[in-house]
Design goal:
By secondary structure, the protein is mostly helical. 50% of the residues lie in helices and 9% in strands. A two-stranded antiparallel sheet has the order 1-4. Strands 2-3 form a two-stranded antiparallel ribbon. The longest helix is centred in the C-terminal third of the chain and has 29 residues.
Length: 92
């Protein structure tokens, strides 16, 4: 699996860079468990310290974590959008 900086992940997953940073700082609610999750940086297997991009010094995030965050936040958005649309159609 590849590791991405926030800017690279935003480009790869077609979200804004601040969305990736909010996954890291604020997190999201995991719909499967109902628990709050935050994006974890990739760790060096030897030292256990967070990996950083050698050119920019930005934290690197594992692709598996980014995919999970993106899928769960998009699913949450679709569910809440459907609920709000249902309320609007009920009022008409």
């Amino acid at each position: 699996m590849a590791n991405y900086t926030a800017a690279q992940a935003a480009e790869r997953f077609r979200v804004h860079r601040t969305t990736v940073l909010s996954w890291r700082n604020r997190g999201w609610c995991d719909p499967d468990t109902g628990k709050h999750r935050t994006l974890s940086p990739a760790l060096d297997p030897v030292t256990g310290t967070p990996l950083k991009d050698p050119k920019t010094g930005a934290l690197l995030f594992p692709e598996s974590e980014l995919v999970l965050a993106e899928q769960q936040t998009r699913a949450q958005h679709r569910r809440s959008h459907r609920r709000s649309r249902a309320l609007v159609s009920a009022r008409i």
